[in-house]
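Protocol step 4 of 5: obtain the predicted structure for the target chain.
Materials: sequence only (see below). No template structures provided, no constraints applied. The aim of this step is simply to have a reference model before the mutagenesis design in step 5. Sequence pasted as it appears in the construct record:
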Amino acid sequence: MIVIDLDGNNLGEKSREESLELAKQKGLDLVLVSPNNETPVARIVDWAKFKYERAKKIKKNKQKTNESKEWWFNSTIEDFHIKFKLEDIKKFLGKTNGVAKITVKYVSKTPPELVNAKMQSILKLTEELFKPVSEVTREGKNLSILVKKK
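Step 4 output (structure tokens):
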């Protein structure tokens, strides 16, 4: 097996016993990095530090994902309450690099024009805060749009 020391220097090809003895002398651990190669590659490392750095790298990769959250607005909601929900959306988008889905929900016995008018009034309030990612779409009787921070 090929052995690599703590500094990244190649120590050459050594037997398993020699590699373990080298790691033991330095008070470190021997970790197989690439066991499936023709000649396996092992690295002499501090296992706790190696495990910590690997977990840190995985956590960093997870942070790149975009979050999304949906806010429902009733078609009979007042402008005062809309502003409260828009503040929540603003806080959410300030913390993350995600998108917010704004949905105006159809309530029975309300004319469809009221749903359209409510979506237009919400869009008018959000135009300086958010940037639309998609067009307004109809999902059944509801209207939705995706927005993100400017």
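Step 4 remarks: The mean pLDDT is 88. The radius of gyration is 28 Å.
Proceed to step 5.
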